[in-house]
Design goal:
13% of the residues lie in helices and 32% in strands. With 482 residues, the protein is α+β, with helices and mostly antiparallel strands. A hairpin with a 3-residue loop joins strand 23 and strand 24.
Length: 482
């Protein structure tokens, strides 16, 4: 019966085979430039061989595939491999390395973060590190000693396990870095020797960034999440609500507002049961900026607002060529700045455009079109006085005379005599308005009025008229006295 029970147990509950691949060394912050020079070491601490051909490296919320560059993808018990973001740079830094080398696309944060080694969906190992432990730009790496991570000189591809007791005697920098492995398909059991860091019960969050924004200009904001102890919680999920219906995730975000207004930004961080939330208003205004002049010296930009204007990343366009304004350029309130052609290398042109960093148009300069000299409309000017006009008149001339020695009466002779009779000069009306075209003529009505006025003037200047008026005046006076 005991044999039967042992057979059943072995059949339905197979014994777990030790096959554990864990992170044993981390180079996250090198002296000088980090780009492409970061790497991690993994070691097979189990009893059987492990094929890492299907493994992935999870970092920055993404799964990165592993590509074998040199060595073998199968790790025997106790052997190590290196995962790097740039195998060429790794070989330059470590020319004597001859073990298994995998290429993957990642970039480790100098402020600490979480990364995971996966076999399919199964988590083989995960590490969350903090720069306060060490190896922050001093040339050292974080190395696993069986119970914690310590800052030591790099040993890529060579994992020498040191017991926790000897580590406590020989090293002083230890552990706010955790190493944990979850059980699952293909994972090794008996990982209790590795420290488990439970999720925090409370979080603190600090949001950095300006609370004033310019329309169409990117606003950069950063959230820093820490635990109550002050250590960075890189595993917290951070979400942003920008108050205009849009949202984003991550510790650092950029937001472009397209319309002026006041928006409430809400930032939320969650790690397990712990969470933190911050909110603050962002005031968005339109940039009061213009291209005020374009000359042979350069292009002048004027800030008409009462606030400083940061033009970092803006662009100037002139004659199909562009100039990117360098980061850090600021125009003071109510001032103008000339950007010389000798600096911008823009061609001398009559037009210029100022663009936002996202390519939107902030201001245009177009010169006023030249005003052509148009001759004024011709004005009909009338002579002040009418010219003297010679007229023909008929007078009957009679000659009555007696010849010597003759008594008969001479006949009456009618003779046509051309006599120059001059009318009194009549003031002609002057033009009150400019006429529409040269050669406009006075209306017939106006001409008639001028003629009537001339006749009346002649009547009152006649001596017979004055005589008649005198007689009437004397008669009136006699009537009064009598």
């Amino acid at each position: 019966m005991r044999f039967v029970w042992m057979f059943v147990l072995c059949t339905f509950f197979p014994v777990s085979v030790q096959a554990a691949v864990i992170f044993t060394e981390v180079m996250y912050d090198l002296p000088g430039t980090d780009s492409g020079r970061e790497w991690v070491e993994v070691t097979n601490t189990g009893d059987s061989t492990v094929d890492m051909g299907g493994y992935t490296f999870f970092e920055a919320s993404s799964n990165h595939a592993l590509t074998l560059v040199s060595g073998a993808s199968i790790l025997s018990s106790g052997s190590s491999a290196i995962i790097t973001s740039d195998p060429v740079k790794f070989k330059i830094d470590w020319p004597n390395y001859s073990g298994s080398l995998f290429d993957s696309s990642f970039s480790l944060s100098n402020e600490g973060e979480l990364f995971v080694l996966k076999d399919g969906t199964a988590v083989m190992d995960s590490v969350s590190y903090d720069p306060s432990v060490g190896a922050a730009g001093d040339g050292n790496t974080l190395q696993w000693n069986g119970g914690s991570f310590s800052s030591l000189a790099p040993t890529p591809g060579t994992y020498a396990r040191i017991t926790s007791e000897s580590s406590a005697q020989n090293t002083t920098s230890t552990t706010s870095v955790s190493n944990s492995q979850e059980e699952g398909s293909g994972t090794a059991s008996g990982r209790s020797a590795f420290l488990y860091m439970p999720p925090p019960t409370a979080l603190l969050m600090e949001v950095r960034g300006l609370h004033d924004a310019i329309r169409e200009v990117p606003l950069r904001m950063t959230a820093r999440v820490t635990t109550k102890s002050g250590s960075i919680d890189s595993s917290a999920n951070i979400s942003w609500s920008f108050g205009d219906g849009s949202f984003s995730t991550g510790s650092t975000v950029e937001k472009i507002y397209h319309y002026p207004g006041t928006y409430l930004v809400v930032v939320r961080a969650v790690d397990g049961i712990a969470e933190a939330q911050e909110e603050f208003p962002v005031i968005v205004t339109s940039a009061k900026v213009r291209v005020s002049a374009v000359s042979g010296d350069g292009i002048t930009i004027t800030n008409d607002s009462k606030e400083r204007l940061n033009l970092s990343g803006w662009r100037l366009l002139s004659d199909s060529r562009s100039f990117r304004i360098p980061d850090g350029m600021v125009i003071l309130p109510g001032t103008s700045v000339l950007l010389p052609h000798t600096i911008t290398n823009l061609p001398i042109a009559f037009e210029a455009t100022l663009q936002y960093p996202n390519g939107g148009i902030a201001a245009n300069f177009v010169p006023n079109p030249p005003v052509s000299e148009v001759a004024p409309l011709a004005t009909l000017s009338m002579p002040v006085t009418q010219p003297l006009v010679a007229g023909e008149s008929y007078k009957e001339v009679g000659t009555k005379g007696r010849s010597a020695g003759r008594s008969e009466q001479l006949p009456v002779v009618t003779t046509k005599v051309t006599v120059q009779s001059y009318e009194e000069e009549v003031l002609a009306p002057t033009a009150a308005k400019e006429l529409a075209a040269v050669g406009a003529t006075l209306s017939a009505t106006s001409t008639g009025e001028v003629e009537d006025t001339g006749h009346l003037s002649s009547l009152f200047r006649s001596p017979w008229s004055f005589g008649l008026l005198g007689v009437i005046a004397l008669a009136g006076s006699a009537f009064i006295f009598l």
